[in-house]
């Protein structure tokens, strides 16, 4: 009898802990991202990526240097990443006139918590400081997919 009671108590406690962890994971996953200061390279990258993912290509386009924007129209700015891509800034190396912002992109295949498909990779944005703004001079795939420069 004592062994049965101990086993039931252990299973009940384990189930409660697992349930609590699932609730915490769901709350963290649904939490809105912290908005970074757009006067920083990290904030510029965040605004650009959000614009591309949300389909606000005009706002995303405004984050590009003239040189990078010359090869593209806002309506052509599209991405190959799925809409549910998760982007995390993992490092920023900020100098006086240039910055490098490394991001980790996680793409998932399918919907639901048990899909298991997908992958994670890292890419880099290069920014230039121009007229009191940080602007993206080099944007990686899948967040910059404009046609080649037109003749």
CATH topology of the largest domain, anyone? Answer: Nuclear Transport Factor 2, Chain: A
**Order of helical and strand elements:** HHHHEEEE
CATH secondary-structure class of the largest domain:
Alpha Beta
Number of strands: 4
Form type: elongated
Major sheet? 4 strands, antiparallel
Poorly predicted runs of 5 or more residues: none
**Rg computed from alpha carbons, rounded to a whole number of angstroms:** 21 Å
How large is the count of helical segments?
4
Strand order of the largest sheet: 1-2-3-4
Q: What is the name of the CATH architecture of the largest domain?
A: Roll
DSSP helix fraction? 25-40%
Query: SS-based structural class?
Result: alpha+beta
Beta-strand share of residues? 25-35%
Please state the average pLDDT score: 80
N/C terminus separation: 84 Å
| Tally of individual domains | 2
What would you call the quaternary organization?
Answer: single chain
In short:
By secondary structure, the protein is α+β, with helices and mostly antiparallel strands. The protein contains four helices and four strands.
């Amino acid at each position: 009898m004592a062994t049965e009671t101990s086993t039931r108590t252990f299973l009940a406690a384990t189930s409660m802990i697992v349930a609590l962890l699932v609730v915490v994971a769901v709350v963290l996953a649904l939490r809105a991202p912290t908005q970074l200061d757009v006067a920083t390279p990290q904030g510029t990258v965040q605004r650009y990526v959000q614009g591309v993912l949300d389909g606000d290509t005009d706002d995303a386009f405004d984050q590009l240097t003239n040189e990078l924007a010359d090869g593209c129209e806002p309506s052509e700015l599209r991405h190959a990443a799925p809409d549910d891509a998760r982007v995390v800034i993992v490092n920023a190396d900020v100098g006086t006139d240039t910055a490098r912002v490394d991001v980790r992109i996680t793409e998932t295949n399918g919907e639901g918590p048990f899909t298991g498909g997908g992958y994670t990779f890292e890419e880099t944005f290069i920014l230039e400081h121009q007229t009191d703004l940080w602007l993206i001079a080099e944007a990686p795939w899948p967040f910059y997919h404009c046609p080649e420069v037109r003749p």
